[in-house]
Automatic annotation (TrEMBL):
Ligand binding (carbamoyl phosphate): R54, T55, R104, H132, Q135, G260, P261
Similarity-based family: Belongs to the aspartate/ornithine carbamoyltransferase superfamily. ATCase family.
Enzyme class: transferase
Protein name stated in the entry: Aspartate carbamoyltransferase
Keywords: Pyrimidine biosynthesis, Transferase
Aspartate/ornithine carbamoyltransferase Asp/Orn-binding domain boundaries: 152-298
HAMAP family attached to this UniProt entry: Asp_carb_tr (MF_00001)
GO MF terms, alphabetically ordered: amino acid binding; aspartate carbamoyltransferase activity
Protein backbone atom coordinates (compact mmCIF):
# COMPACT_ATOMS: atom_id res chain seq x y z
CA UNK A 1 0.00 0.00 0.00
CA UNK A 2 1.26 3.45 -0.85
CA UNK A 3 0.97 6.37 1.53
CA UNK A 4 1.97 10.02 1.77
CA UNK A 5 3.12 10.30 5.38
CA UNK A 6 5.79 12.97 4.96
CA UNK A 7 7.91 14.91 2.50
CA UNK A 8 10.85 12.91 3.89
CA UNK A 9 9.61 9.94 1.82
CA UNK A 10 9.58 11.87 -1.51
CA UNK A 11 12.40 12.71 -3.90
CA UNK A 12 12.61 15.63 -6.33
CA UNK A 13 11.18 13.54 -9.17
CA UNK A 14 8.14 12.56 -7.08
CA UNK A 15 7.50 16.23 -6.23
CA UNK A 16 7.82 17.34 -9.87
CA UNK A 17 5.36 14.59 -10.91
CA UNK A 18 2.87 15.86 -8.30
CA UNK A 19 3.32 19.43 -9.63
CA UNK A 20 2.80 18.38 -13.27
CA UNK A 21 -0.30 16.40 -12.30
CA UNK A 22 -1.57 19.38 -10.27
CA UNK A 23 -0.98 21.67 -13.30
CA UNK A 24 -3.43 19.49 -15.26
CA UNK A 25 -5.99 19.39 -12.45
CA UNK A 26 -5.74 23.15 -11.92
CA UNK A 27 -6.68 23.63 -15.55
CA UNK A 28 -9.60 21.19 -15.11
CA UNK A 29 -11.05 22.91 -12.02
CA UNK A 30 -10.98 26.29 -13.75
CA UNK A 31 -13.30 24.99 -16.48
CA UNK A 32 -17.09 25.47 -16.25
CA UNK A 33 -17.40 21.70 -15.60
CA UNK A 34 -14.91 21.18 -12.78
CA UNK A 35 -15.32 17.44 -12.31
CA UNK A 36 -13.43 14.45 -13.74
CA UNK A 37 -14.29 10.76 -13.25
CA UNK A 38 -10.72 9.72 -12.21
CA UNK A 39 -11.58 8.38 -8.71
CA UNK A 40 -15.19 7.37 -9.24
CA UNK A 41 -14.49 3.86 -7.88
CA UNK A 42 -12.62 5.12 -4.81
CA UNK A 43 -14.08 5.88 -1.37
CA UNK A 44 -12.12 8.23 0.89
CA UNK A 45 -12.55 8.96 4.61
CA UNK A 46 -11.33 12.26 6.00
CA UNK A 47 -10.45 11.38 9.59
CA UNK A 48 -9.75 14.47 11.66
CA UNK A 49 -8.65 14.24 15.30
CA UNK A 50 -7.77 17.96 15.28
CA UNK A 51 -9.55 21.05 13.97
CA UNK A 52 -9.05 22.29 10.41
CA UNK A 53 -10.62 24.66 7.92
CA UNK A 54 -8.40 24.74 4.80
CA UNK A 55 -7.00 21.20 4.80
CA UNK A 56 -10.26 19.39 5.51
CA UNK A 57 -12.37 21.40 3.10
CA UNK A 58 -9.83 21.33 0.27
CA UNK A 59 -9.36 17.56 0.61
CA UNK A 60 -13.14 17.13 0.47
CA UNK A 61 -13.46 19.43 -2.52
CA UNK A 62 -10.55 17.65 -4.26
CA UNK A 63 -12.26 14.29 -3.67
CA UNK A 64 -15.53 15.60 -5.09
CA UNK A 65 -13.79 17.09 -8.14
CA UNK A 66 -12.28 13.62 -8.75
CA UNK A 67 -15.74 11.97 -8.36
CA UNK A 68 -14.67 9.95 -5.30
CA UNK A 69 -17.19 8.98 -2.62
CA UNK A 70 -16.40 10.87 0.60
CA UNK A 71 -17.16 10.42 4.29
CA UNK A 72 -16.03 12.86 6.97
CA UNK A 73 -15.12 11.90 10.52
CA UNK A 74 -14.50 14.37 13.30
CA UNK A 75 -13.10 12.79 16.48
CA UNK A 76 -14.78 15.28 18.81
CA UNK A 77 -18.28 14.16 17.73
CA UNK A 78 -17.41 10.44 17.46
CA UNK A 79 -17.13 7.35 19.67
CA UNK A 80 -13.48 8.29 20.35
CA UNK A 81 -15.07 10.21 23.25
CA UNK A 82 -16.29 6.79 24.58
CA UNK A 83 -12.73 5.42 24.56
CA UNK A 84 -12.46 3.83 21.08
CA UNK A 85 -8.83 3.65 19.92
CA UNK A 86 -7.34 5.12 16.75
CA UNK A 87 -6.77 1.68 15.19
CA UNK A 88 -10.26 0.42 16.09
CA UNK A 89 -11.81 3.61 14.77
CA UNK A 90 -10.04 3.35 11.41
CA UNK A 91 -10.57 -0.44 11.11
CA UNK A 92 -14.32 0.15 11.59
CA UNK A 93 -14.30 2.83 8.90
CA UNK A 94 -12.40 0.51 6.53
CA UNK A 95 -14.92 -2.29 7.20
CA UNK A 96 -17.40 -0.12 5.30
CA UNK A 97 -15.22 -0.62 2.17
CA UNK A 98 -13.22 2.60 2.33
CA UNK A 99 -10.04 2.69 0.19
CA UNK A 100 -8.15 5.78 1.35
CA UNK A 101 -7.71 7.57 4.69
CA UNK A 102 -6.81 11.26 5.00
CA UNK A 103 -5.84 11.78 8.64
CA UNK A 104 -5.01 14.74 10.85
CA UNK A 105 -3.87 13.85 14.36
CA UNK A 106 -2.27 15.78 17.25
CA UNK A 107 0.49 13.17 17.80
CA UNK A 108 3.66 13.08 15.66
CA UNK A 109 3.99 9.73 13.89
CA UNK A 110 0.27 8.86 14.12
CA UNK A 111 0.17 8.12 10.37
CA UNK A 112 3.23 5.86 10.50
CA UNK A 113 1.70 4.01 13.49
CA UNK A 114 -1.59 3.57 11.64
CA UNK A 115 0.15 2.34 8.48
CA UNK A 116 1.49 -0.64 10.49
CA UNK A 117 -2.05 -1.72 11.40
CA UNK A 118 -4.20 -1.18 8.32
CA UNK A 119 -4.17 -1.83 4.56
CA UNK A 120 -5.40 1.34 2.83
CA UNK A 121 -3.72 4.40 1.34
CA UNK A 122 -3.00 6.92 4.12
CA UNK A 123 -2.40 10.62 3.53
CA UNK A 124 -1.04 12.63 6.45
CA UNK A 125 -3.05 15.87 6.75
CA UNK A 126 -0.84 17.02 9.65
CA UNK A 127 0.55 14.97 12.58
CA UNK A 128 1.30 17.13 15.61
CA UNK A 129 4.49 19.14 15.15
CA UNK A 130 5.94 16.57 12.71
CA UNK A 131 4.82 16.90 9.05
CA UNK A 132 2.10 18.45 6.90
CA UNK A 133 3.21 17.21 3.47
CA UNK A 134 0.34 18.51 1.29
CA UNK A 135 0.80 21.99 2.81
CA UNK A 136 4.49 22.02 1.83
CA UNK A 137 3.61 20.79 -1.67
CA UNK A 138 0.99 23.50 -2.20
CA UNK A 139 3.39 26.11 -0.79
CA UNK A 140 6.21 25.15 -3.18
CA UNK A 141 3.71 24.87 -6.06
CA UNK A 142 2.53 28.43 -5.29
CA UNK A 143 6.14 29.74 -5.29
CA UNK A 144 6.72 28.02 -8.67
CA UNK A 145 3.52 29.59 -10.03
CA UNK A 146 4.33 33.15 -8.84
CA UNK A 147 8.14 33.23 -9.21
CA UNK A 148 9.07 30.38 -11.56
CA UNK A 149 11.53 27.63 -10.67
CA UNK A 150 11.82 27.02 -6.90
CA UNK A 151 15.50 26.10 -7.34
CA UNK A 152 17.80 28.92 -6.23
CA UNK A 153 15.08 30.86 -4.38
CA UNK A 154 15.77 32.09 -0.85
CA UNK A 155 12.91 31.34 1.54
CA UNK A 156 12.72 32.44 5.18
CA UNK A 157 10.21 30.76 7.49
CA UNK A 158 9.44 33.12 10.37
CA UNK A 159 7.97 32.30 13.77
CA UNK A 160 7.16 29.28 15.87
CA UNK A 161 9.40 26.73 14.15
CA UNK A 162 9.51 24.50 17.25
CA UNK A 163 5.81 23.60 17.17
CA UNK A 164 5.31 23.76 13.40
CA UNK A 165 4.71 20.80 11.08
CA UNK A 166 4.43 23.33 8.24
CA UNK A 167 8.02 24.46 8.90
CA UNK A 168 9.53 20.95 8.85
CA UNK A 169 7.66 19.83 5.71
CA UNK A 170 8.47 23.14 3.96
CA UNK A 171 12.16 22.87 4.82
CA UNK A 172 12.38 19.31 3.43
CA UNK A 173 10.35 20.12 0.30
CA UNK A 174 12.14 23.39 -0.55
CA UNK A 175 15.58 21.82 -0.06
CA UNK A 176 14.67 18.86 -2.31
CA UNK A 177 13.68 21.41 -4.98
CA UNK A 178 16.99 23.28 -4.64
CA UNK A 179 15.88 26.34 -2.64
CA UNK A 180 17.90 27.87 0.20
CA UNK A 181 16.01 27.93 3.50
CA UNK A 182 16.41 30.12 6.59
CA UNK A 183 14.37 30.07 9.78
CA UNK A 184 13.87 33.22 11.84
CA UNK A 185 12.41 33.65 15.31
CA UNK A 186 13.26 33.87 19.01
CA UNK A 187 15.76 31.27 20.35
CA UNK A 188 12.93 29.75 22.43
CA UNK A 189 10.96 28.82 19.30
CA UNK A 190 13.81 27.49 17.11
CA UNK A 191 14.87 23.87 17.77
CA UNK A 192 18.59 23.08 17.93
CA UNK A 193 18.43 20.51 15.11
CA UNK A 194 17.70 23.20 12.50
CA UNK A 195 21.39 23.63 11.72
CA UNK A 196 21.74 19.84 11.28
CA UNK A 197 19.09 20.11 8.54
CA UNK A 198 21.31 22.57 6.65
CA UNK A 199 18.99 25.47 7.42
CA UNK A 200 20.30 28.99 8.13
CA UNK A 201 19.20 30.41 11.50
CA UNK A 202 18.65 34.15 12.01
CA UNK A 203 17.14 35.87 15.04
CA UNK A 204 16.83 39.33 13.49
CA UNK A 205 13.78 39.74 11.26
CA UNK A 206 15.16 42.71 9.28
CA UNK A 207 18.33 40.76 8.38
CA UNK A 208 16.23 37.74 7.37
CA UNK A 209 14.05 39.89 5.13
CA UNK A 210 17.12 41.52 3.55
CA UNK A 211 18.35 38.00 2.66
CA UNK A 212 15.18 36.38 1.30
CA UNK A 213 13.00 36.40 -1.84
CA UNK A 214 10.03 34.89 0.00
CA UNK A 215 8.89 35.15 3.63
CA UNK A 216 6.54 32.47 5.00
CA UNK A 217 4.99 33.86 8.19
CA UNK A 218 3.85 31.29 10.78
CA UNK A 219 1.38 31.60 13.62
CA UNK A 220 2.43 31.09 17.27
CA UNK A 221 0.88 27.70 18.09
CA UNK A 222 -0.50 28.42 21.55
CA UNK A 223 -2.35 25.08 21.54
CA UNK A 224 0.97 23.16 21.52
CA UNK A 225 2.61 25.09 24.36
CA UNK A 226 1.80 23.96 27.89
CA UNK A 227 4.25 26.35 29.58
CA UNK A 228 4.29 30.11 29.64
CA UNK A 229 6.46 31.00 26.69
CA UNK A 230 8.87 33.82 26.03
CA UNK A 231 8.45 36.20 24.37
CA UNK A 232 4.88 37.25 25.11
CA UNK A 233 2.60 37.81 22.11
CA UNK A 234 3.09 41.59 22.43
CA UNK A 235 6.88 41.23 22.48
CA UNK A 236 6.69 38.74 19.62
CA UNK A 237 4.76 41.20 17.46
CA UNK A 238 7.27 43.96 18.21
CA UNK A 239 10.25 41.77 17.25
CA UNK A 240 8.87 39.41 14.60
CA UNK A 241 5.61 40.90 13.33
CA UNK A 242 5.65 41.75 9.62
CA UNK A 243 4.22 45.19 8.85
CA UNK A 244 4.12 47.58 5.91
CA UNK A 245 6.70 50.02 7.36
CA UNK A 246 9.27 47.22 7.68
CA UNK A 247 8.64 45.96 4.13
CA UNK A 248 8.75 49.51 2.70
CA UNK A 249 12.12 50.13 4.36
CA UNK A 250 13.72 47.30 2.30
CA UNK A 251 15.09 48.11 -1.15
CA UNK A 252 13.28 45.17 -2.81
CA UNK A 253 9.92 43.43 -2.84
CA UNK A 254 9.34 40.13 -1.10
CA UNK A 255 6.64 37.55 -1.78
CA UNK A 256 4.60 36.95 1.38
CA UNK A 257 3.15 33.56 2.37
CA UNK A 258 1.17 32.25 5.33
CA UNK A 259 -0.30 28.75 5.74
CA UNK A 260 -3.28 30.05 7.77
CA UNK A 261 -5.00 30.52 10.07
CA UNK A 262 -3.70 34.10 10.37
CA UNK A 263 -3.62 35.93 13.66
CA UNK A 264 -3.98 39.39 12.12
CA UNK A 265 -1.92 41.98 13.99
CA UNK A 266 0.31 39.36 15.66
CA UNK A 267 2.66 37.77 13.09
CA UNK A 268 1.42 39.87 10.16
CA UNK A 269 -0.60 43.06 9.73
CA UNK A 270 -3.73 43.07 7.56
CA UNK A 271 -2.28 45.50 4.99
CA UNK A 272 0.62 43.07 4.34
CA UNK A 273 -1.53 39.91 4.39
CA UNK A 274 -3.93 41.47 1.87
CA UNK A 275 -1.30 43.19 -0.34
CA UNK A 276 -0.48 42.36 -3.96
CA UNK A 277 2.76 40.70 -2.82
CA UNK A 278 0.84 38.23 -0.66
CA UNK A 279 0.04 34.82 -2.21
CA UNK A 280 -1.89 33.58 0.82
CA UNK A 281 -5.17 32.93 -1.02
CA UNK A 282 -3.32 31.48 -4.03
CA UNK A 283 -1.85 28.94 -1.58
CA UNK A 284 -5.39 28.01 -0.52
CA UNK A 285 -6.59 27.81 -4.14
CA UNK A 286 -3.64 25.58 -5.10
CA UNK A 287 -4.38 23.25 -2.18
CA UNK A 288 -7.27 21.71 -4.12
CA UNK A 289 -5.23 20.88 -7.26
CA UNK A 290 -2.28 19.58 -5.21
CA UNK A 291 -4.55 17.32 -3.14
CA UNK A 292 -6.28 16.07 -6.29
CA UNK A 293 -2.83 15.21 -7.70
CA UNK A 294 -1.69 13.38 -4.55
CA UNK A 295 -4.87 11.28 -4.28
CA UNK A 296 -4.93 10.54 -8.02
CA UNK A 297 -1.30 9.34 -7.99
CA UNK A 298 -1.75 7.21 -4.85
CA UNK A 299 -4.91 5.61 -6.27
CA UNK A 300 -3.02 4.52 -9.44
CA UNK A 301 -0.98 2.11 -7.33
CA UNK A 302 -3.89 0.04 -5.96
N1 LIG B 1 -2.91 25.41 6.75
C1 LIG B 1 -3.72 24.58 7.44
O1 LIG B 1 -3.37 23.42 7.68
O2 LIG B 1 -4.90 25.13 7.85
P1 LIG B 1 -6.05 24.32 8.61
O3 LIG B 1 -5.49 23.98 9.99
O4 LIG B 1 -7.23 25.25 8.70
O5 LIG B 1 -6.33 23.07 7.84
Amino acid sequence: TRNLLGIKDLNEKDIQLIFETADNFKEVINRPIKKVPSLRDVTVANVFFENSTRTRLSFELAQKRLSADVINFSASSSSVSKGETLVDTVKNILAMKVDMIVMRHPYPGAGVFLSRHIHANIINAGDGANEHPTQALLDAFSIRERLGDVSGKKVVIVGDILHSRVALSNILCLQKLGAEVMVCGPTTLIPRYMEDLGVLVEHNLRKALEWCDIANMLRIQLERQDIKYFPSLREYTMMYGLNRALLDSLDKTITIMHPGPINRGVEITSDVADSEHSIILEQVENGVAIRMAVMYLLAQKH
